[in-house]
Specification:
The complex is a heterotrimer of chains A (about 290), B (about 260) and C (about 400). Chain A has about 290 residues and is mostly helical. Chain A is built from 14 helices and no strands. Classes of the chains: A mainly alpha (about 290), B mainly alpha (about 260), C alpha/beta (about 400). Chain A: It comes from Dactylosporangium siamense.
């Protein structure tokens, strides 16, 4: 099979690099895995006990809600702003290319560093954001962005949107480039306005790229770890804890590795559901 | 006019980075003063002096690892995406599914497995271990993106090449690749950035300071200067400058694609 | 495009070549080199430790490969090494983590090393099921730092009791300056900072919602609600707290002796140190014992013997005193600590506290991490989430049952 030769390396790659870690994690979810297990390699199987205990954990329900809000908010704003910027930068203007590529610069910094800059900006008393809002009389007293259980999730979501915009913009921009200019010309001749052209030409033809950006965005957002760890460590009082940081917290703060693995597996399950959704959506596109 | 708007968008997006630059020029205690200092008028270059002395080697390692990751990623992803999108290779959808799900495996679990494997293979502290580990962040992404773009290429283009007697491999090289140049550059760019910014695998697979890439270098540097934030931020600025230049250069390739018309190429 | 592909191929080839030349796995049968790991991310600890290791390595006749990883990566890294059976010969672990690691069987019992003359709490913290697995060269505790200029300008004396603490904090809160700073961050650091108040009030980690515990949390809540401490305390690490104090944003702070080298280097800052205030003049102060312990990982008899020899050198009188002085720690040897307190008055408050300090794992052993998590979550939901101390601690107690 000639065709198989092209995909064989990718299959081999999946088998070598992902299969073993995935199997390990699935197995750990059914085991009472302790610090000792790492050394001895022995961990008793406990059936679904880890899952039962995770579901009963008082922090679990709030964590699921946070994850949904964080993911939906991030995805919506990242994609919306990313698409708007992609459309904007598609028009040719002086320095456009350079400006577009500079938008990627935030990605070059480890989040340890840019996250720290954000912490200063969002600091309640001395942060530049609160100073600006106060000076513009938009608020009457400093907003505790990271220091309140009501706002911390909003704050980490906004920072995550900031991180995600360049990714969305660049890929959507690439998708826009692939749309033949003749189609726009034809639509214009038919008397379609700018908004009509966007709805009738851009959106449908961008659909394969849109689907992949949203699916990848969803998975990357579910996986977000550094942003939250640097800004709030999931706090205060778990108010910005998502399933990913919760899994890490169970494993390495509480040393309950079986529980951590169980939460990790729930996330894999979510990915399975959305992967099926992606394949469906993908089949429907021409 | 549009340039002005573009500049303002950029200014908003890059404000946190400006704030870092500002911080890198300020003495540490000014950073948390109640009235923020907007311009580093009383600037100090101490941070840069400190940072320059220590991070050069780490920058090179990062560059090397990131380019290696791009190479490995493209080597796996381009043929796979082509096979799936254009040739209808069997089990294609299963592969896409597997790649999507694979990305959800917790990073720390991957890191544990890689550490054990790299240790057995005597690859700890080698760039090859980092390249392979970092490529796992990029391959699924690259296959999906390339697949999404290559599906949009009309089959007639490839069939025309086949009529001319070109093999599937030659059709890929001489017809499909040039047409999907934008997608390849996008995939390469992000593979580069994923590898450049990776911290977890870097700290897992290196034990010696000499072998560590820039992310770990910066982290150690933060530690050594925890109350000396201007040095830390200076390192951040220095770390991002060379690659920022690279980005501006790379966008020329994308720009070239625009003018020649991507599908007609 | 072709050029791009060619360049990529060339890089791949280079990567493979370099990998062949640089192979460097840790061969376990090599006894000329020992490996060491610690999480000291900050100066002066991370600059001083390698020097000491080199000196002791030379003395024993062995090369020591030093590795430092971030605190958050320390446990994951040790566990990876445990599963690959390549535990480092020497590891400097945080004392609450010791029981877990000792339980794994990967550590060598330190039978040959004497713990005579060390603070009893330190010896206890290093034990698991009757055997000693970890010994600290230096330890630390928490005390109250105060800004002398601000105190004398206000005509105040450093506080001794909780009432005096609250009164001083309120009196010194002015404009953008808060009376006091402490860390209530959502990690072990937050629990560590709260425990002096918690224990001194008479509370016990086995009962998180006791009236004494509620009293301690009420003290913190009143400070934050009364605006004498910033709401940001829930996001500040102990290093952030130190920055706030140095910048003059807080008149007092709760912190450890490891900040002394940094504080002493800051010009124009005059500060004093007193023990953590107590609820009533008759209360017995109890603070948590802080600091890291040296452990020896299992390998082969020859390596273990050399690692023990290095450890003996590190724990020796000269070296442990040298380490304590340079890194801002209290020697774990009682006589050495007393001598140091005499010669260095800055350390007197800390030495006084370490004498009555309690190991965090003394009551709970391997269950400590879970309880600590419940405790810092309760602190955070009380300070940042509007819950009353009663509600918050009750929820915490329910979650550890």
């Amino acid at each position: 099979m000639r065709k198989l030769a092209f995909v064989a390396p990718a299959w081999l790659y999946v088998a070598v690099f992902y299969l073993y870690p995935l199997a390990t994690n699935v197995r750990m979810g059914f085991q009472d895995f302790t610090v000792t297990s790492f050394y001895t390699g022995v961990a008793p199987f406990v059936g679904l006990r880890n899952y039962r205990e995770v579901f009963r954990d008082p922090a679990f329900a709030g964590t699921v809600t946070n994850t949904v809000l964080f993911t939906a908010g991030s995805l919506l704003l990242q994609f919306g702003i990313g698409l708007a910027l992609a459309v904007f930068f598609k028009r040719n203007f002086p320095l456009g290319g350079a400006l577009r590529s500079l938008l990627l610069v935030p990605w070059l910094l480890p989040l340890v560093v840019s996250g720290t800059a954000w912490r200063w900006i969002l600091e309640t008393d001395s942060g530049v954001l609160n100073r600006t809002l106060l000076n513009l009389h938009l608020v009457s007293e400093p907003v505790p962005w990271l220091a309140s259980t009501d706002l911390s999730l909003t704050a980490v979501t906004l920072v995550n949107v900031w991180v995600g915009i360049p990714f969305n913009m660049v890929i959507l921009y690439g998708g826009l480039q692939a749309i033949p200019a003749e189609l726009y010309e034809a639509a214009q001749l038919d008397g379609a306005g700018a908004w009509q052209r966007f709805r009738r030409v851009t959106l449908p033809l961008l659909r394969p790229v849109t689907t992949v950006v949203l699916t990848l965005g969803l998975i990357y957002t579910l996986k977000v770890f550094d942003v939250i760890m640097v800004l709030t460590q999931g706090g205060p009082a778990d108010s910005s804890q998502t399933l990913t940081t919760f899994s890490y917290d169970l494993s390495f703060q509480q040393l309950a590795f079986g529980h951590g693995a169980a939460v990790g597996n729930l996330l894999v399950l979510v990915a399975v559901v959305f992967a099926i959704g992606y394949l469906r959506a993908e089949r429907r596109t021409p | 006019m549009k340039t002005a708007l573009g500049v303002s968008i950029l200014a908003v997006m890059l404000f946190p980075l400006y704030w870092m630059l500002n911080a890198s020029l300020l003495p540490s205690t000014e950073l948390i003063q109640p009235e923020p200092t907007w311009l580093p008028i009383h600037g100090t270059l101490d941070g840069y002096r400190n940072a320059l002395q220590s991070q050069g080697g780490h920058l090179l390692t990062s560059l090397y690892v990131a380019l290696g990751t791009v190479a490995v990623t493209l080597a796996v992803a381009v043929p796979a995406a082509y096979g799936l999108a254009q040739l209808g290779a069997p089990l294609g959808r299963t592969l896409l599914f597997a790649l999507l799900v694979a990305q959800m495996i917790p990073g720390i679990v991957m890191a544990n497995a890689f550490y054990v494997a790299a240790n057995e293979l005597y690859l700890i502290n080698t760039p090859i271990a980092l390249i392979l580990a970092d490529s796992t962040l990029c391959v699924p992404f690259a296959v999906l993106i390339l697949h999404a773009f290559m599906r949009g290429i009309p089959a007639e283009i490839r069939e025309a090449a086949a009529l001319d007697g070109a093999s599937s491999l030659r059709a890929l090289r001489s017809v499909i690749l040039p047409v999907s140049r934008n997608a390849v550059i996008t995939a390469s760019l992000f593979s580069f950035l994923f590898a450049w910014a990776d911290f977890l695998y870097a700290v897992t697979l290196t034990t010696r300071d000499e072998a560590a890439p820039i992310t770990v270098g910066i982290y150690r540097f933060i530690g050594a200067h925890i109350s000396d934030w201007n040095s830390v931020m200076a390192t951040g600025v220095i770390a991002s400058l060379p690659v920022a230049v690279l980005l501006v250069v790379a966008q020329r390739y994308v720009a070239a694609g625009i003018t020649s018309g991507s599908v007609k190429d | 495009m072709k050029r791009l592909t060619a360049a990529a191929a060339a890089f791949a080839a280079l990567a493979v070549l370099s990998a062949c030349g640089d192979g460097a796995g840790t061969a376990k049968d090599d006894t000329g080199t020992l490996t060491e790991i610690d999480y000291y991310e900050a100066a002066p600890q991370n600059t001083q430790l390698p020097k000491l290791l080199d000196a002791c390595g030379t003395e024993v006749g062995v090369k020591i490969e030093h590795q430092q990883v971030p605190r958050a990566q320390f446990m994951p890294k040790l566990l990876q090494q445990a599963s690959a059976r390549t535990l480092p010969d020497l590891a400097l672990v945080d004392n609450p983590d010791l029981p877990q690691l000792a339980a794994s069987g990967g550590l060598v019992p330190l039978k040959e090393l004497s713990t005579e003359g060390l603070y009893p709490s330190i010896v206890t913290a290093g034990q698991y099921k009757g055997d000693t697995y970890g010994i600290a060269a230096g330890v630390n505790g928490l005390a109250l730092y105060y800004n002398q200029d601000l105190f004398s300008a206000a005509g105040l004396q450093p506080p001794k009791t909780w009432d005096e603490l609250t009164a001083a904090a309120k009196a010194l809160t002015k404009g953008t300056r808060y009376g006091i700073a402490f860390s209530a961050v959502g990690t072990e650091e937050g629990s560590f900072q709260f425990e002096p108040f918690f224990w001194t009030a008479g509370a016990n980690l086995k009962q998180l919602d006791s009236p004494e515990a509620i009293k301690a949390l009420t003290l913190w809540k009143d400070l934050v609600d009364g605006k004498a401490a910033s709401r940001s305390v829930v996001t500040w690490t102990q290093a952030d707290v130190n920055d706030q104090f140095m910048a003059g944003n807080a008149a007092m702070m709760v912190n450890g002796p490891w900040q002394l080298p940094t504080l002493n280097a800051k010009q124009g800052l005059k500060f004093g140190i007193v023990p953590i205030p107590i609820p009533a003049p008759t209360a017995k102060p109890v603070t948590p014992l802080g600091g890291e312990m040296w452990t020896v990982g299992r390998s082969n008899p020859e390596r273990e013997r050399k690692a023990l020899a290095v450890l003996k050198c590190l724990l020796g009188k000269d070296k442990s005193l040298e380490w304590s002085t340079a890194a801002g720690y209290i020697p774990s040897n009682q006589a050495a600590a007393a001598a140091l307190a005499q010669s260095n008055p800055q350390l007197a408050a800390f030495v006084e506290e370490v004498a009555t300090a309690q190991a965090r794992t003394a009551d709970l052993g391997t269950d400590y991490p879970k309880t600590s998590e419940a405790l810092f979550n309760a602190i955070q939901s009380c300070l940042a989430g509007g819950k009353s101390p009663q509600e918050a601690l009750k929820a915490a107690q329910a979650s550890v049952k």
